[in-house]
Each structure stands twice: as structure tokens, then as C-alpha cells.
From TrEMBL:
<protein>
    <submittedName>
        <fullName>Phytase</fullName>
    </submittedName>
</protein>
<dbReference type="Pfam" id="PF02333">
    <property type="entry name" value="Phytase"/>
</dbReference>
<dbReference type="InterPro" id="IPR003431">
    <property type="entry name" value="B-propeller_Phytase"/>
</dbReference>
<dbReference type="GO" id="GO:0016158">
    <property type="term" value="F:inositol hexakisphosphate 3-phosphatase activity"/>
</dbReference>
<dbReference type="InterPro" id="IPR011042">
    <property type="entry name" value="6-blade_b-propeller_TolB-like"/>
</dbReference>
<feature type="domain" description="BPP">
    <location>
        <begin position="22"/>
        <end position="346"/>
    </location>
</feature>
Length: 351
């Protein structure tokens, strides 16, 4: 990059950050800085999930995937230090968490990850990360296109827990499969298909999936196209409710995170991957249409090409009194952000 190009980028509010050796990636000069950068994984970070410790939120954990043939799940504390690990997984992609799955009469918190090369989901109890899936549960049985990638957990009002699984490629309809988890009566978990749903553009892939348990909606990123919205309850049908976030993305739509400010209010954050920003939309939609999502803000971050993200509004201690936002970044790490820094950018965009 020559001096003139650098000066033009600086004047436009942009700077360059090194990424992947000699490759250069543009990040905004006013990008938010992470409070913590985690210990590195061996291969390639992809997606995080946040587990809230029920007795002491300051001891909550971050679980992230290391996406490779000999990859794993890394468990971090709030200082970004690795405190546990699940090894020898066959390309784990995304991960999500649910609370209170009843097994053998005991309620367990669980982490579920997709294992792409075995066409399975893997299930572990939290915080010990002990497997409870008898070696994994096959998904997309009978399909020619499997290769599971995205995963999200939905906890219904009756405490039933469901897994929604996406894949690398597939049909233009019924792209996602939803499974109900239950006790297999031998100390583990079984999964039953309860529906197949979801449109797919066919342009790239669907990886990021998020569920709003309280409002009962599923959101997923159709890369280069937008974010689809469906009901999470299978009994409410398979009609698409919305397709939004269709504009102002550099290329891929990636990680989706939902920050809740009230019963119906909050923010939906979607990774604008190649631009190193997160696009923010109102969780509640507009005043007249809950399925209409207008862009509220574009938040620049120091995270490079983020695939996956997660957020919580729970007070996790002095560094995160209003919650924590976690995003995967190139460099084999995850970034932790103080929610107050993100909210400041959202508020500034409203003025």
C-alpha cells in the first residue's frame, strides 16, 4: 500500500489491519476494541456460545469451536483463559447452549455442536463437558447432502428442548431440520425429527442460526442474501415471516446474536463479515410490523472476518455489568466486548 492510498483511507475513516500473514483487511479507525482476547486454538475458531453460571455469573464460561478435522471445543473463563477442552472432534462447526435438559431425572445444561465430517451433532454436559450422546447423533438421515454446519437450541415454554441444524448445501426448501431432544433411558440423549423447513437461496450456504426463546423465533443467515425468520414452535407452521438485512452487506451474512432489553425489545446483531462490522436491527421490529426490520446502526469492531458471535445481557461482573458480546476473529481467537461500548455506537447512530 502506497502513502497516497493510506492517506485516502485514513481520511475516509479507515485503517488497515494485518490478517492471515501478508493479507490486509480494512477495519474502521473507530472500531471498538475488545476487553479480552482469548487464548488461541490450534486451527481455526468459528463460533462461540455463552454459559451463565447459575450460582455466580462472574464464573460463567465461553465455549468455542476449533474448526478442523482434529478440532475441538475450547472452554474459556471470562479472562479468556482456556479452562477445559474437548479434543478429537471431526470438524466441529457451530455450537449452542441450553439449560435444564432432563436426563435420568436430573436437569443438565448442555452444549451442542455440529460435527461435519461424521454428519452428526455432539452433545456435552456443562460445565464438565462430559459426552452424553453415545458417540454422536446422526442428522439429515436419508439425504444426499448433509455436512452439518449451523446449530441453534430452542427451549419452548413447556421446557422442551429442540435442536435446529443447517448444512453446507441442500434443497431450496426444507433446508433446516429440527430435532426434539429427550432422555434415551440409558443415561444419554436421543433426537427425534419434528420438522423440516426453511428456504435457501442456493447462492452460498447457511451457517449462522439463532433462536429467540422468549419470543419464539428462529433467525438464520443466508449468505449474500439476508436473514430469514420463522417460528421456533413446530406447531405454528413453516411459513417464512421475514427476510431482512438484504442491503449494505459487503458479501456474507454470518453470526447472529440477540440482546434483550425487555420482554419484547432489544437488538439483533448480524455479522457483516467482510466489512468487519455488525449490523444492528430492532428485536421488536417496527411499531406497526413486528416482522419489519430497519437498520439501526452499523457497529465497527476490531474482530476480523467474524463467522460466529453470541451476546448476553446478564451482569458478568465489573468488566461486563451490562453484558458481554463475544465474536470469533481470524487469528485463532475470540474477542470479548463490553456491551456498553457497543450500545454507545448504537446510541450515536440514532442521533
Amino acid at each position: 500500500m502506497n502513502i497516497k492510498t493510506y492517506q485516502l483511507l485514513t481520511a475516509a475513516g479507515l485503517i488497515f489491519a494485518a490478517c492471515n500473514g501478508d493479507k490486509q483487511t480494512i477495519v474502521a479507525a473507530d472500531a471498538i476494541k475488545p476487553v479480552v482476547t482469548t487464548d488461541t486454538v490450534l486451527y481455526d475458531t468459528d463460533d462461540p456460545a455463552i454459559w451463565i453460571n447459575p450460582t455466580d455469573s462472574s464464573k460463567s464460561l465461553i465455549i468455542g469451536t476449533d474448526k478442523e478435522t482434529d478440532g475441538g471445543l475450547y472452554v474459556y473463563n471470562l479472562d479468556g483463559k482456556m479452562v477445559n477442552k474437548v479434543s478429537n472432534l471431526k470438524r466441529p462447526n457451530n455450537v449452542d447452549i441450553a439449560y435444564g435438559l432432563k436426563i435420568n431425572g436430573k436437569k443438565l445444561d448442555i452444549a451442542v455442536t455440529t460435527e461435519r465430517e461424521t454428519n452428526k451433532i455432539r452433545i456435552y454436559s456443562i460445565p464438565d463437558m462430559a459426552p452424553i450422546d453415545n458417540g454422536g447423533i446422526a442428522v439429515f438421515d436419508g439425504e444426499t447432502e448433509k455436512d452439518p454446519m449451523g446449530v441453534a437450541l430452542y427451549t419452548a415454554a413447556d421446557s422442551s428442548i429442540y435442536v435446529i441444524v443447517g448444512r453446507k448445501s441442500g434443497p431450496v426448501n426444507q433446508y433446516l431440520w429440527q430435532y426434539k431432544l429427550s432422555d434415551n433411558r440409558s443415561g444419554g440423549v436421543k433426537a427425534e425429527v419434528v420438522r423440516k423447513f426453511g428456504k435457501y437461496s442456493g447462492k452460498k450456504e447457511i451457517e449462522a442460526i439463532a433462536v429467540d426463546n422468549e419470543l419464539g423465533f428462529i433467525y438464520y443467515s443466508d449468505e449474500t442474501v439476508g436473514v430469514h425468520k420463522y417460528y421456533a414452535d413446530p406447531a405454528k407452521g413453516n411459513n417464512e415471516l421475514a427476510l431482512f438485512a438484504k442491503e449494505r452487506f459487503a458479501s456474507d451474512h454470518e453470526g447472529i446474536s440477540i440482546y434483550k432489553t425487555g420482554i419484547n425489545t432489544g437488538y439483533i446483531l448480524v455479522s457483516n463479515q467482510q466489512k468487519n462490522t455488525f449490523m444492528v436491527y430492532p428485536r421488536e421490529g417496527t411499531a406497526t410490523n413486528p416482522n419489519e426490520y430497519k437498520l439501526l446502526a452499523e457497529v465497527p469492531v476490531s474482530t476480523i472476518e467474524s463467522d460466529g458471535s453470541e451476546v448476553t445481557n446478564v451482569n458478568l461482573g465489573p468488566r461486563y455489568p451490562k453484558g458481554l458480546f463475544v465474536a470469533m476473529s481470524n487469528g485463532k481467537v475470540f474477542h470479548y466486548y463490553d456491551w456498553r461500548d457497543i450500545k454507545q455506537k448504537i446510541d450515536a447512530a440514532k442521533k
